Amino acid sequence: MNKNTPVSEALDPVDRAIVDALHRDGRAPWSRVAEQVGVSAVTVRRRYESLHNRGLIRVIGATDVVRLGLGTPIYMRISNAHGDLDVLIPRLRERIEVRSFHTLLGSVDIAAEMVLPPDVDYSRLVAEITEGTSASAESLLLTHAFASGQDWAPPFESHEPTRLAPVKTEPAPHLDLSQSEVKVLGMLMHDGRTSLGDLAASIGKSENTAARTIEQLKEHGVLDFRILVEPELLGFNTEFHLWLVVEPQHLRQTALTLAEHPSTKYLTATTGNCSLAGQFILRDRTELFHYTTEVLGSLPGIRSAELSIQTATYKRVWTSIIDGRYATDGQPLDPIEYLRPRP
């Protein structure tokens, strides 16, 4: 087992029910979660805090970086990196531009999803990451998301994962946030259950104002609450990336069909050497052959499909994973504050 693979801990039925409830509403009051789970609010809170403090789950505030003008999402695919992982992994972990990254088994050694600020010197950024190594980097511009990994719902009472809602096919208009909204959003992206008292103190306002700010962000469509939980804890032991070349006339329909498949966590159209890229999940590697022949084989217009097995995850949605657990110590640099354009 890779040292960055989640430790072998089982979630019992109560824990699983709490995870399911919080994925649908990450800031739900403990009393409401307790009603759904069928135990007391005290038990729900105690269970959640134990799972959170052990780094097994994390409620986050999900947002739309493009709509907020925070930068350009890309995939950086790093190859020829086997001998330099001990150098590259810490560098990628420390970069605030890196939203998530994984090591892979295949022609690509590392896949990093990044958000590049508008004024970034991309050549310099690549040089800083790969300096002193033999690694080479290739970038894919992410042009349209068909499925978001933040919306992948952990399965509870069924054998298959579900998706809460399809990603909108048309982008929403740009939105400018106030300084208070920026601060609240940044804190909730780190910990979606940050108390109203802490949020209020950070913006110098009342708790009622902090609560209204949360509601405004939700009404704007730039804040939704989700729960992070590593798939292995839920019985899904195989994650992989796909790099697909699809004929242009079939691209939209193939993407929409693939986005609805329960194995799809994340799917986006890209530029570069592939037209679709994404992250997918199965219960076991023995299912890969069936997936390749039956799922991919049934889709029209696919010219080529490269599959890379994910060997370890080091960051998800700006949340570092250390020794298989979500890091809980310290407040990281706020990605919203760092990435947003300056006047």
Features:
single chain, 343 residues, alpha+beta, eight-stranded antiparallel beta barrel, two-stranded antiparallel ribbon, 11 helices, 14 strands, 28% strand, globular
Structure description:
By secondary structure, the protein is α+β, with helices and mostly antiparallel strands. It is built from eleven helices and 14 strands. The strands form three sheets. An eight-stranded antiparallel β-barrel has the order 2-4-3-12-9-11-10-5. β13 (about 320) and β14 form a beta hairpin. α1 (about 15-25) crosses α2, α2 (about 30-35) packs across α3 (about 40-55) and α7 (about 195-205) packs across α8. The protein is globular. The protein starts with 12 loop residues before the first helix and ends with a helix.
State the low-pLDDT regions, or none.
none
> What is the CA-based Rg, rounded?
20 Å
Number of helices: 11
**N-to-C CA distance:** 48 Å
What percentage of residues falls in helices of 4 or more residues? 25-40%
Series of H and E elements:
HHHEEHEEHEEEHHHEEHEEHEEEH
β-strand number = 14
